[in-house]
């Protein structure tokens, strides 16, 4: 008989928790969605971000004493979740678009020997060239490059920055992918 009373008390508390959480979520979802959209940059990412934040909030619902600070707590969850998503390697390679491409493209391997850019890459100092080759030809991360070259990730970043600045300065405008060919602008 006592087990049944305990179970009923637990069910009542869970029902109250669910009702409180549902009321909060319904009332605050539009405003928090806006924050999620601004963090994620697209609707699908915002929906995922907000859903994850609400799931984490629900798990902690009983531990939160200051109900006035809930929005701040959810925003903090979203910021942390968004930051951790962008640290994942697969997310950095993912790009959303509004339309699907009509035809597939094949990204052919570039051994670096036939491209116009390669002649400029060859003029870089050895360490900068190594960073450019590992980053853009081998597509290694900064941490992987640092490990391969035995340098710090900060040195990888500074060498890459210097190399790209030198390449921009040396390469003709015809190789600039941002050039539209419209001289009137």
Strand content: under 5%
Residue share in helices?
Answer: 55-70%
Might you state the CATH topology name of the largest domain? Rna Polymerase Sigma Factor, Chain: A
Give the CATH architecture of the largest domain.
Orthogonal Bundle
How many domains make up the coordinates?
2
- Assign the structural class, choosing from mainly alpha, mainly beta, alpha/beta, alpha+beta, or little secondary structure: mainly alpha
Q: Report the uncertain regions.
A: none
CA-atom Rg in angstroms:
26 Å
Overall number of strands = 0
Query: How many angstroms does the end-to-end distance come to?
Result: 83 Å
The arrangement of helices and strands along the chain is HHHHHHHH
Q: Largest sheet, if any?
A: none
Treating each run of at least 4 consecutive H or I residues as one helix, how many helices?
Answer: 8
General shape: elongated
Chain-averaged pLDDT: 78
CATH class descriptor name of the largest domain: Mainly Alpha
């Amino acid at each position: 008989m006592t087990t049944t009373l305990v179970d009923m008390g637990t069910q009542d508390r869970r029902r109250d928790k669910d009702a409180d959480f549902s009321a909060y979520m319904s009332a605050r979802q539009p405003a928090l969605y806006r924050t999620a959209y601004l963090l994620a940059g697209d609707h699908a990412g915002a929906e995922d971000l907000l859903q994850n934040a609400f799931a984490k909030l629900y798990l902690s619902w009983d531990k939160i004493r200051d109900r006035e600070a809930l929005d701040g707590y959810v925003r903090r969850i979203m910021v942390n979740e968004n930051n951790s998503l962008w640290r994942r390697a697969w997310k950095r390679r993912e790009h959303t678009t509004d339309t699907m491409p009509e035809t597939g493209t094949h990204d052919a391997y570039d051994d670096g020997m036939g491209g116009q850019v390669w002649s400029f890459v060859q003029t870089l100092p050895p360490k900068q060239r190594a960073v450019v080759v590992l980053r853009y030809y081998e597509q290694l991360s900064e941490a992987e490059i640092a490990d391969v070259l035995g340098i710090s990730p900060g040195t990888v970043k500074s060498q890459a920055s210097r190399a790209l600045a030198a390449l921009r300065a040396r390469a003709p405008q015809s190789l600039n992918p941002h050039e539209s060919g419209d001289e009137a602008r």
